[in-house]
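lol ok so funny story. i was supposed to be doing the assay writeup but got distracted and ended up predicting the structure for this chain instead. priorities right. anyway since i did it might as well share w the group, maybe its usefull for someone
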Amino acid sequence: MGRVTRRAFAGAMLAGLTAAGGAVAWGATTGGDTDEDEKAEARRRAGSDELRGMWLSTVTNRDWPSRAGLTAAQQRSELLAHLDTAARCRLNAVIFQVRPTADALWPSPYEPWSQYLTGVQGEDPGWDPLGTAVEEAHARGLELHAWFNPYRIANHADSTKLVASHPAREHPDWVVPYGGKLYYNPGLPEVRAFVQDAMLDALKKYAIDAVHWDDYFYPYPVAGEVFDDDATYTRYGGDFEDRASWRRDNTDKLVRETAARVKKIRPGTQFGISPFGVWRNASTDSLGSDTQAGVQTYDDLYADTRKWVREGWIDYICPQIYWNIGFAAADYAKLLPWWAEVAEGSSTRLYVGEALYKAGDPAQPDAWQDPAELSRHLTFARDHPQASGHVFFAAREVGADPIGAMARVVADHYQQSAKPPR
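and the output, tada:
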């Protein structure tokens, strides 16, 4: 991610969208039967069974720690302050990034300590951030979802900058340089096994409430560059009609295998994924959404997110619907109903990823200068009972709240505490 966080991709990728013009009335809703209306009303009255989460990002010290090299006491104090903020806003879950770049925020036998703690990859910070986060989150009535990135190794392309004992240096054949970064090759069975072992070590050691992935599978496309997995495709892709189908199957395998292992290691733990908000455009696939996105997860990230929901492979999905109501190329008021329809009748819960970081950003459309925009999202979602909660990106903005958008959400929607869905 460099200074471009995973969330900035939502904006960056939309540079490839068709120009957005005009707006639709956000209040228009899809019809629903009486039972659905009653369920939505009951949930509003009870204020329960609703996920209210925030992402706590550590890559490039985006949210925490505020900078690398703080003392253990300073790091701990900042972490607890974020948890306190979540509790004060009546949230009930924190999604804590504990493996940002093939590293660890806990003592792992598989991967080095994260450089975002001490400034030096592999250096022991003198305390256990993940263990502390689990204990302190639970003490505040918060769920702790441990957020992992499966394949990203580094935000640079120089493997010699990795600590000498790094698995990527010990297994250079696992590594694919692409777009100025380093990635593990998802087509190698040994890579899939390793990254699962590395991530699920945390699940074995801590009572985390969920294993959580973000939107990175195969990397986002970079113009003029090719992800070089020719040799792997030649070796393993013979049963597939094309490379794209083989790549999607590799991602499917990672999802299915991880889901099975999560349930075996710690029954009751959830497995959730937060993908880019557009599966496919309707112009590409009649099952897709009424959008004109420049990136489609199915085609560009080789992630069939719709199938994972329909097949019930994951416990929850939290698509990053990071656009305002009325945004022509990717309208929140069209994407949320699309995802609700996908989730309806499945065993997968739907949560909505919300772009709090855009509120008040002068580089964003006018809608994001209105402190009420996010509150309108939650109001709109009330008419879609499949939507069981919202997650806000990210912790820094939840705390700073530059134009009062989060305060408006709390005042309008979170006046009472709520238990997360189970």
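Residues 243-265 form the longest helix (23 residues). Residues 1-34, 39-47 have pLDDT under 50 and may be disordered.
back to the writeup now i swear
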